[in-house]
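ingest -> validate -> predict -> emit
validate: passed (alphabet ok, no gaps, 269 aa)
predict: started
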Amino acid sequence: MIAFPPCKINLGLNIISKRPDGFHELDTCFYPVPWTDILEIIPAKELAFTSSGSDIPGNPDDNLCLKAYHLLKADFDISPVKIHLHKIIPIGAGLGGGSSDAAYTLRLLNEIFNLSLSVEQLKKYASKLGSDCAFFIQDKPMHGSGKGEILTEIDIRLNGFYLLIIKPTMHVSTQEAYSGITPRLPHIKVSEIVKQPLSSWKDSLKNDFEESIFKKYPAIAEIKTKLYLNGAIYASMSGSGSSVFAIFEKPVELRNGFVGMEYWDGSIN
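emit:
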């Protein structure tokens, strides 16, 4: 069985407070984007994980897809499978590719083994794998609070617009991004801002990570500036970076030298 785990962008990201458990209280909107990995899971005699495409750093045995399998295996008598992941979504980009792969592993295993797990049950399993994993159990925009695992459907329609995502060569770790953050309450919640016309987002919809990350990595700030120069209605860093996305009214042919950077562009469905 094959699935196509998508990535996400964050429409606004406020870091509200530090939690007693060491995580942070967030206010954000997750939006799914059809830039996908390719995930195949088939029954096998022995559990195996293989990958192709972009290199996946770290020990393969620690991959989130395998962790998702073991999470269900602990509660259900499921047989071994072979998992193959063709990695396309850039790693360490703030796009949630690894979380999406894990969530889609849960979804496929639920279907393959007829576990009949509900969406809410799948979300509970996914939240054990990562703060934004639960978002990828459903393919729709969501307001995220708590660590990002408390999800509420939100009515945002970007159909007809075009999205460009640029991933520069530098990598920003989540730990590094949070080290520069001073939590604070936003003046207006993300869920209220995104209800306003898209043309107003530039001045009000913020990603709190940008202030410190842009100081440390001016090249990322320069990408955002160039995207506006190329006609973007709205541009922002996604998650903790380092990718930057922009929303356009029509397809754009990039000017101003976006050289040596990985990117995706297409319509927002």
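The first strand starts at residue 2 and ends at 3.
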